[in-house]
Structure formats: structure tokens, C-alpha cells
Design a protein that fits this description.
Layout (H helix, E strand, L loop, with lengths): L20 H10 L14 E2 L11 H9 L8 H14 L3 E5 L2 H12 L5 E4 L4 H9 L3 E4 L20 H11 L6 E5 L12 H13 L4 E4 L3 H11 L8 H10 L3 E5 L10 E5 L2 H14 L10 H13 L3 H20 L12 E5 H4 L9 H13 L1 E2 L1 E3 L1 H4 L1 E2 L5 E2 L5 E5 L7 H16 L7 E5 L10 E4 L2
Parallel strand pairs: 1-10, 3-4, 3-5, 5-6, 6-7
Antiparallel strand pairs: 2-8, 7-8, 9-14, 11-14, 12-13, 15-16
Length: 457
């Protein structure tokens, strides 16, 4: 087999600014060991997120020039609407300026005290928007998904027995929504099988609980189904995606992921009464229902991106590039989430840094070490992001301590990825020198974005 090459040519470039390890040590300290505080010009390879960081295509840039900026009834919206209807089968489409705005609207309508939103795994902003209403987000990840080093084809699946038990314990009337995140971002970018989605849907129907899809990476998840699940090898990714959405009552999406856009998102659903409530809130918070906080040019870029992401040559390259970096690290002994996920490589910091306990945030410490060693910016998905405090203000650690290296779409080449592997392996060889961290300042919600930390000597 030949090398799988990037299915695109580079038409425009932007510079990377180089700095030294000594300079980065000072920068990290001034940023209070929080990589969100670092200026992007001080980052060599930015893998903080794959959200809004994609390189748009020439077709998307052409679409931007054709965007119609009418306040109401823009033709750019109707193209946007038709594209989403075609992929999801959902006729009621509500644009928002990004995914968390869609979540904010949905959970404001459906949430409230003594309610529970059940999921395979909720991401940080999703959980925050649920908790902001007074409700509680519940993660019911399958058992294999909690074991980073043990390969399994669909580690993003929901634990259906745990779901049934939770319904019996809390009552279906107190569960306004079940959400399946595809792929499972917080769980290592791992896919969810169609069989699992069907099983969850069956439970939802039996208990009159609506099912929504968090569809940020629906195309990547559909590609995994095509590759790994029996009966789907001969189906197109679009056909698989259409079946996936057919089991859902609605979906939220950040178009900053699989739609290649730099901004944007949407809510889509079948329920007209729910859509009416969401649109009423949209008008107050985002804008008129045919623009929803977006410029017409962004609606055009999203429409084109949603079509481009279904290109199977692109998806083969995308998933293979993540696998390429994962395998390089496995060969060097670095503990990572296995098998490779869809959009990111996840280092198991708990396994790599056993000398740093979860209360000293090993994943955040490792992320800092990657930055100082090679200028790589990643993000912690562990006890800084998901840890909670008990009634005695003692940290309840997250299930896993992961460092996510999210690969922007169509941005970095193989030589960039080779460099990333080299830096991670260098850090792995000197891992005993990494020190734990303690928080000196934090916000009550989404603290990992703004927290200040210091090293523990």
C-alpha cells in the first residue's frame, strides 16, 4: 500500500514563530502553568483544540464571498438549512454562533433542578450548561472506555445496563434528555457503534426519554462505523450518518469541528413545540432564526464544510494521521489511549506520571512539560477539568487523567506530526523530573480555562 497522502494542496501559509526552551519556561510560569493563558504566537504547534482551528478550503472561501448578509430570510440560511436537513433528516434547523450556544438554549428550555441529563460522556461546556440550570449531568461510559491502554473498537459506547439502572433509581420523568456524544471527546475521541445507538434508542423509547446526538464529529464517528462494524463496509459515510441521525430526536453541533468552519453551530430536531421554545430563546440571546448569531458568509462556509467532510478520501487521511502519531508513541512506550481516536491523541498521564497523585493534576503538569520542551500546546482532560469537591472541600478526582493533543483539520503536515512525536518521547524519557501542581486561583465553573497554578516543590 502506498503512503496515505494529504488529500489537498497547500494554497496559503502562515508563519510559525520559534522560541527557545528557556523562553518557554518563563512564558509558562507567567501564564501560571495554564496553557490557555499563553499567547498563540508563543506556541510552535497548537494542539489545544480542533474547534474552529481548521483550514478552510478554496470552495469555502469562495462561499464566504457569496454570503448574503440580509437580517432575515438570507439565501445563505436556506442553503445551510437544506444541507443539514439532507444529512440529519431533521427538518427544524436553528443556527447558533457555536455549539455551546446551542447547548445553552436547549438546556435552558429542558433543564432545571432535580433533573438529570444522561450521556456516554459529556464534554466540559455541555456539562457546565446543564449544571447552570440546576440539573445534573451523568456519565455512563462503557467499562472498556475507562481503560486507556486496552484496545476495543467502540470505547465511546454508553453502558446500557447502567442507563436502565439509573432510570429505575431516579425515574424516567426526571430525565428530560439522553445525549450521545459522537465521537466521545472526553473519553479519548473514541467512536460509538450503531448497535449501541440503537440499544440506547430502544431504552429511550421504552421510557419516553428524548435522544439527542452531540454531533460535533459525526463524520469521523461514521467513518469508524464503516471500518469497524459489521454490515457497514459497503455503505457510504453519508448513508451511515443518515442512519445514525435517524435514531435521534434532535442534535446539537459545533460546526467548528467536522464542518471545518471557524465559527458556528446549530440545533436540529423534529419536535415543533420544542423548536418554538428554542427559537424564542434564540431571538433573545443569539439573533433572528435565519442567522442565529452568524454572518451569512459563515452560514455558507458551514454548508460547504458539511458536504466536504463526507469525502471518504479525506476521512481516511484524517483518521490515519491520528493513528500515525498514536502508533509512534506506542512504539516508544508512551502510555496512550488505544486504539487511536478520531480527532486527537490522548496521553495517559496517570500511567506516565505515577509519582504525581491526581490531587496534584498530573495531566496539567504533563501538558506544561510538553510546552516547555517543544512549544506544543495541548489540553488537560482530567481532574483540573472534571474534578469536583466534596462537602469537606476535598478533591474528587476525574476517572482518567489525560492530555489531549487535538489535531486541527487540514493544518499540519507529517513533518509537524513527526516533531510532536519526538517532543513527547523526549518528555517521556525525563518524566520523573516533572513536578505536580496546586491551584492558587480558580473560577466556580469551567475552572480549567482561567485557573492559576504553581509547582509543588
Amino acid at each position: 500500500m502506498h503512503t496515505i497522502i494529504e488529500p489537498f494542496r497547500i494554497k496559503s501559509v502562515e508563519p510559525i514563530y520559534f522560541n527557545t526552551k528557556e523562553e518557554r519556561e518563563v512564558i509558562l510560569k507567567k501564564a501560571f502553568f495554564n496553557l490557555f493563558h499563553i499567547h498563540s504566537k508563543d506556541v510552535l504547534i497548537d494542539l489545544l483544540t480542533d474547534s474552529g482551528t481548521s483550514a478552510m478550503s478554496s470552495n469555502q472561501w469562495s462561499g464566504i464571498m457569496q454570503g448574503d448578509e440580509s437580517y432575515a430570510g438570507s439565501p445563505s440560511f436556506f442553503r445551510f438549512e437544506k444541507t443539514i436537513q439532507d444529512i440529519t433528516g431533521m427538518q427544524l434547523v436553528i443556527p447558533t454562533h457555536q455549539g455551546r450556544a446551542a447547548e445553552k438554549i436547549l438546556f435552558s428550555v429542558m433543564g432545571g433542578k432535580e433533573k438529570y441529563f444522561v450521556s456516554n460522556t459529556l464534554f466540559d461546556t455541555t456539562r457546565a450548561n446543564i449544571e447552570f440550570t440546576g440539573a445534573e449531568g451523568i456519565d455512563l461510559l462503557c467499562a472498556e472506555g475507562k481503560l486507556p491502554s486496552v484496545p476495543a473498537p467502540f470505547k465511546g459506547n454508553m453502558d446500557t445496563e447502567a442507563f436502565k439502572n439509573f432510570i429505575s433509581e431516579k425515574g424516567a420523568a426526571n430525565i428530560p434528555l439522553c445525549i450521545i456524544t459522537v465521537t466521545n471527546n472526553s473519553g479519548g475521541g473514541q467512536p460509538v457503534s450503531m448497535q449501541n445507538i440503537r440499544a440506547v434508542k430502544k431504552i429511550c423509547v421504552e421510557n419516553d426519554i428524548p435522544l439527542f446526538i452531540d454531533a460535533c464529529r459525526f463524520a469521523e464517528n461514521s467513518w469508524f462505523i464503516k471500518q469497524r462494524e459489521a454490515g457497514y463496509a459497503d455503505k457510504s459515510v453519508k448513508e451511515i450518518a443518515h442512519e445514525l441521525f435517524s435514531y435521534a430526536d434532535g442534535c446539537t453541533m459545533s460546526a467548528k469541528k467536522d464542518a471545518f468552519a471557524n465559527i458556528g453551530g446549530f440545533l436540529a430536531m423534529h419536535d415543533e413545540e420544542l423548536a418554538l421554545q428554542c427559537r424564542n430563546l434564540l431571538i433573545i440571546t443569539e439573533g433572528f432564526p435565519t442567522y442565529g448569531g452568524l454572518a451569512g458568509r459563515d452560514l455558507e462556509a458551514i454548508s460547504i464544510g458539511l458536504e466536504e467532510v463526507l469525502d471518504e478520501n479525506y476521512l481516511q487521511y484524517r483518521i490515519r494521521s491520528i493513528e500515525y502519531l498514536t502508533n509512534k508513541l506506542i512504539d516508544a512506550g508512551v502510555p496512550v489511549m488505544q486504539p487511536a481516536g478520531g480527532h486527537a491523541v490522548y496521553i495517559d498521564a496517570k500511567e506516565m506520571l505515577p509519582h504525581i497523585p491526581p490531587v496534584q493534576y498530573p495531566a496539567q503538569a504533563l501538558a506544561g512539560a510538553l510546552y516547555t520542551q517543544g512549544g506544543i500546546r495541548s489540553v488537560e482532560i482530567g481532574s483540573l477539568m472534571f474534578g469536583k469537591y466534596d462537602e469537606k472541600n476535598k478533591l474528587i478526582p476525574a476517572q482518567m487523567e489525560l492530555v489531549r493533543l487535538a489535531i486541527p483539520r487540514r493544518v499540519y503536515t507529517q513533518s509537524h506530526i513527526d516533531y510532536v512525536a519526538e517532543v513527547i518521547i523526549e518528555v517521556y524519557k525525563t518524566r520523573q523530573q516533572i513536578k505536580g501542581l496546586q491551584i492558587i486561583e480558580e473560577a466556580p465553573t469551567l475552572r480549567h480555562f482561567t485557573a492559576k497554578l504553581k509547582t509543588i516543590d
